[in-house]
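ENTRY TYPE: paired fold submission
RECORD: A
CONTENT: sequence, then structure tokens
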Amino acid sequence: MCDYSLHAVSSRPAELAETIVTSGFAGTKTRGFASPADCTVAVCLRPGTEIAFEANAYAEGLLFRRKIGERLARFRQIDLDKAAQHHDALEFANGTIVLLTDLALGQKAKVLQLPVDPAEKPAKTTSTTATTPIERSLV
């Protein structure tokens, strides 16, 4: 998903195994992910998407960058009950939760895994279990 403050920015869903980069977007102070090839289009992650940064991730602090000390993270949304706040966040393997908008710019990451889409129907499987005497004799 893309945060509420990016609704005026062009966006698209993330793709498996693509490289994304933390970016700022024109007309907004919000940060998020974009493709290195086109930093004007926000790349939106769904909750549960797993990513790996090329190096340990950093967040912006008041004066200096703050080291998170992890590369692996899962996208999630926080504080959904609070309107007009940023909700898009990453939960890192060490338990640290960082808002996307607080990440330092220019960090590259790779999309490792996308969550299952609940709208997709599972593939039909054919049962090989025989239920009648005739079916059992054919197996």
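RECORD: B
CONTENT: sequence, then structure tokens
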Amino acid sequence: MFHALADPGRRGMVDRLSEGPASVSELARPLAMALPSVVKHLAVLEAGGIVLSEKAGRVRTYRIAPGALSALESWVAGRKAKWNRRGSAPGAGRSSAGC
């Protein structure tokens, strides 16, 4: 899942899909990349369990997978709880000047 969300273009597609389902061409429209590249990025998102697709005729439509980010949220919550129990939450004891 982290790999799928590592690319800014894929994160942009996820942002767009959070508004509702969209076709490949709708997702490609605001991006500066060829349609085959968009399809490859969508395949990475689908393999990561973040989006689902369905094909109706010649149009493939993508949507956010239900609970797509639940695994990520659970992982982050688990790490955060562990850090808090140890008293070493990320950023604790560090000044924000170096960030």
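NOTES ON RECORD B: The first strand starts at residue 22 and ends at 23. Helices lie at 2-6, 8-17, 24-28, 35-47, 70-86.
STATUS: closed
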